[in-house]
Amino acid sequence: MLDDCQFNGIRFRCCDEFCVVDSTSGPCFSLNALQNKCSQTGLFVLNKTSGPGMLSFRLLSDAQVIIHSREELSSFVPQKFKFDVKINLVKYANILFSMKQIQIESSLDEEDITVRNCRRGFEIPEEPLHSYPVYSYGSCSLARRIYKTFQRCGCVHPIQAKFYKDLYCNYTGLNCLVAYNVQRTKFGVKDDNEQNDCLPSCEESHISIINFSKTPYSGEENKASLVNIKISELPTLKYKRTLMRTKLDLVVTVGGMLGLFFSASILSLVEIIYLMFRP
Predict the structure, then answer these.
(1) Each residue's pLDDT tens digit, 19-41
(2) What is the structure's pLDDT at 150?
(3) How far from chain centre, in Å, is Cα 213?
(4) What are the contacts of 119-124 at 24+ separation with CB within 8 A?
(5) How high is the pLDDT of residue 27?
(6) Greatest mean pLDDT among 61-75, 101-115, 247-261
(7) In contact, 129 and 164? CB cutoff 8 Å
(8) Cα-Cα end-to-end distance for the chain
(9) For 180-238, what is each residue's pLDDT tens digit?
(10) Do residues 77 and 214 touch, judged by C-beta distance below 8 A?
(11) Residues in contact with 24: Cβ distance below 8 Å, sequence separation at least 6, in sequence order
């Protein structure tokens, strides 16, 4: 499927770096992903020395190229980040994007998940059939979708990741899955627990597509399409998740209101208690 893979002009073996990652439609080949990090070369690191990076490869068959953050799965990426490349029609495909990073303030580590309303990558939900090593909204959503079908049919579709292999469906199970999907998609029948309340990741990357261009192929039959994926510049803008009001802020606010409206303070409250119990 892939050939002549390069990153910043350095060639590498495609099959060593593109790892198999789970998705709703079966295995995908992902580069530099955290969900199945098979590469340990450290080749795909960007800094001020290396500058913006560009990934190039040749597609030997029709494929869909998807741009997403390292922790996310390709299935739950908006359609605007998915690009269909057909080798008989496209000679060159160029994708230019930019990225903004979201980080979490250290003070939020002590807060409960329900307070900060996000999960760190290592905070894996203790839910049935959630087997992905890094938390993301996509991994949580896919695990819950798999569990719903498992509850309905008692098995998991064989296109899913190999760590579900002991639960793969047989012929009867596949018929059940097909009937279940038809009910959901064509007839709109939904389960009682259909709503998805998966939290976003605390640390993630927001990607924006700047330009996508395709050069059509004319002439003899094309055997491959050259795909170039480039980041416009190193991320210069970072967002931080912070807690607007901590417990200490609440105490300070209440104390300030008591002092403003009642001229009270902690010392005066202690004095009242002292006078009440004074013999």
Answers:
(1) 889 888 888 999 888 887 676 66
(2) 92
(3) 25
(4) 119/199, 119/200, 119/201, 119/202, 120/201, 120/202, 120/203, 121/34, 121/71, 121/201, 121/202, 121/203
(5) 87
(6) 61-75
(7) yes
(8) 90
(9) 888 877 655 565 555 568 888 888 888 999 999 998 887 666 688 999 999 988 887 78
(10) no
(11) 75, 142, 145
Q: What is the DSSP string of 30-53?
A: EES-STT----S--S---TTT-S-
Please tell me the distance from the alpha carbon of residue 138 to that of residue 66, in angstroms, as a whole number: 14
SS3 for 20?
A: strand
For 104-149, the DSSP string reads E-GGGGGS-HHHHT-B-TT-----TT---SS--HHHHHHHHHHHHH
DSSP state at residue 165 = G
Which residue, chain included where needed, has tokens 């709503």? 195
Provide the residue type at 193 as one letter.
N
Contact 95, 212 (CB under 8 A): yes
Q: Which residues of 230-251 are buried (b: 16+ CB within 10 A; e: fewer)?
A: bbeeeeeeeeeeeeeeeeeeee
DSSP for residue 258: H
Q: What distance in Å separates the CA atoms of residue 58 and residue 157, rounded to the nearest whole number?
A: 31
**Average pLDDT, rounded, for the chain:** 84
What percent helix, strand, coil does the chain show, rounded to 5?
Answer: 30, 25, 45
- Looking at residue 71, its pLDDT comes to 87
